Amino acid sequence: LLMVDEKGKNMKCLTFFLMLPETVKNRSKKSSKKGNSSSSSNSKLPPVCYEIITLKTKKKKKMAADIFPRKKPANTNTTAVQQYHQQNLNNNNTIPAPNWQGLYPTIRERNAVMFNNDLMADVHFVVGPPGGTQRLPGHKYVLAVGSSVFHAMFYGELAEDKDEIRIPDVEPAAFLAMLKYIYCDEIDLAADTVLATLYAAKKYIVPHLARACVNFLETSLSAKNACVLLSQSCLFEEPDLTQRCWEVIDAQAELALKSEGFCDIDFQTLESILRRETLNAKEIVVFEAALNWAEVECQRQELTATIENKRKVLGKALYLIRIPTMALDDFANGAAQSGILTLNETNDIFLWYTAAKKPELQFVSKPRKGLVPQRCHRFQSCAYRSNQWRYRGRCDSIQFAVDKRVFIAGFGLYGSSCGSAEYSAKIELKRQGVILGQNLSKYFSDGSSNTFPVWFEYPVQIEPDTFYTASVILDGNELSYFGQEGMTEVQCGKVTVQFQCSSDSTNGTGVQGGQIPELIFYA
Q: GO biological process: what's one of them (predicted)?
């Protein structure tokens, strides 16, 4: 066998020398005889008959990694890979090509093909509560590599050889999200399934997925879901998430208490919120939120939502509401007429408001401390009298960013420099053009160079490392104070605030001077 090309050179084609059968037979007989000279015996052999067959060779095959580089081009093979992934998600995974392994250049991608795939599956999971189950395939080796719980389940000393395992306490979507991480090394989280995925990750000890779930929850944390996440963070023993939830609930207490999620919390979480000293809310809002929770709790316990049953489900938590600290109007028009209090309780609380000798109450009578607002002042001096600051409906605006999450409660504004005066102020807070908070209110200035607070209806959550736009349109005495020697960066407690000019400012306010001297916030 010789590698030659048509011109006699190597590496082009194959040339075979084929001996005819009769020639081979004669050659064999001659070689068996003994002779004095091998050369003379060979010379007497008949000539070898041969035939030359020329075959064309194929091109050198490329490896899979050569065909599919890491940065995949947009071609038909990529489309096929995407189709296989979609089949896996739908649990409709038939591999059409017998050599499907050749489509994937890395072991990670080939392993991902097995995700939710019946091919070579040696175990199946029946996931979900009765009536909502889904049967999912698995591969013991892959699962054991990704989770110590699965390793103990399949290869531990007490391993059971079951072909089907029932998991009624995990949602199918959450279990699939966990499997996708184990098989594909991909984290695919959604707002409506992240809590269930966190539960699955905790149950099967997949710490990196659990951490990703917590990070997802922290970034999506708001007043609307803070109470529910507080309840879940305590259940999952996630202290960092618990602390973040309390920060939101304290600063945006009224929004959190009025949210639908508040009614979904468990009794222990309800008690912890009602006990909270730093809850930044009016007590009538706390009272109404507790009644709303009691009504939903009656439905959960399949009770008629009567006054008696509401009080029953609230139990001793009712006395954690600081009813005696309400404004008298709030008590008289709200709590006193709700029916939730007994006649004696109502009379005693009225006496608490009016009598010199106050009766003993089961309710907590000490007001909540709430949160102490911090003020970030960005000017080193202010000017007055000789320099007028005209408003006439124009906008004063400044941009700012913080390095830690805070909650903007309002702005501190200058007043008149020539005696007392009343101002009308429309304040606004925006992020990338989207209004996050606004309010129209009036404030009275006494002629001093002090700043006067103007509040938003609810504190606005501010995320770190993002610029927000603070704006105000003032209407009042045009001869007012204005700031000078502005600073681009101010350290306020543990929070660093950066300022830059805003294109929305049409009345002269900038970093160096102008209006909006203070940001009022909770941290």
A: dendrite morphogenesis
**Structural domain span for residue 279:** 225-354
* Confidence at residue 209, expressed as pLDDT on a 0 to 100 scale: 95
Query: What mean pLDDT do residues 310-323 have?
Result: 95
Residue 125 belongs to some domain of the structure: yes
Q: How many CB atoms lie within 10 A of CB 220?
A: 13
Tens digits of residue pLDDT in 231-243: 988 888 889 999 9
pLDDT, average across residues 282-292: 96
Sign of CA dihedral 191, 409, 487, 393: positive
Instruction: Based on the fold, state whether residues 98 and 147 are members of the same structural domain.
Output: yes
CA atoms of 320 and 254, how far apart (whole Å): 17
| 40 within some domain | no
pLDDT, position 97: 66
pLDDT tens for each residue of 383-426: 876 656 777 778 999 999 999 999 999 999 998 887 888 889 99
Count of C-beta atoms within a 10 Å radius of residue 107: 8
Q: Look at residues 220, 249, 280 and tell me which one is the last residue of a structural domain.
A: 220
238 & 348 share domain = yes
Residues 419-477 pLDDT 10s: 888 889 999 999 999 999 999 999 998 888 899 999 999 999 999 999 999 999 988 87
With 0-12 CB in 10 A as exposed, 13-18 as middle and 19+ as buried, what is 337?
exposed
The CA distance from 269 to 261, in Å, is 12
Question: What total number of domains does the chain contain?
Answer: 3
Average the pLDDT over 116-124 and give the result. 91
Indicate whether 253 and 157 sit together in one domain: no
Same domain, 471 and 453: yes
CB 295 within 8 A of CB 305: yes
Q: Specify if 458 maps to a domain.
A: yes
Cβ atoms of residues 500 and 468 within 8 Å: no
| DSSP secondary structure code for residue 447 in this structure | S
